[in-house]
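Show me a record, fold above all:
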Amino acid sequence: MAPSSSQEFQLAAACCIWPPSYRRTEAIRAAAAGSIDWARFLRVVRRHGVVGLVHDGLSRAQIGVPPDIARQVAEHAAALVQENLALAAEALRLQQLFAESDLPVLFIKGVSLAKLAYGNLGIRQGKDLDLLVAPVSLPAAAALVEQAGYRRFVPPAEVD
């Protein structure tokens, strides 16, 4: 038998159900119906990087979240939006550089996927930009990214 999840984890998981629906709202309300350790809940949310989904879910479900917790979730969600907007702007800058150099590139995961999957940059946390290029384009792409201000650490530059 699998160990049961904490009520705080269950609430966070319910907020992660997508897309928004009656089923999601009811799952959030059911998970929040018991006694929630709100400080623990915040730790779970931060650990799993789901503050955007949680903010959206709690806002839509309109459950009685303690004001301090609601404020912290909203602040973290606002910071997430700012971080993701910065990543999206950087992706656009890099996309333009690749286009000007006639190098095909594909942005995967992160904010690109968040926009496609959720239609909103404030829902899912991004940390970095993941670029996919054809193997034959790798030397030119690496040079372009370096010219854009990035530095290669792993693997070292002497590794082709």
In short: The mean pLDDT is 93. Residues 45 and 51 are 6 Å apart (CA to CA). The helical segments are 7-15, 22-32, 38-48, 51-61, 67-100, 110-118, 138-147.
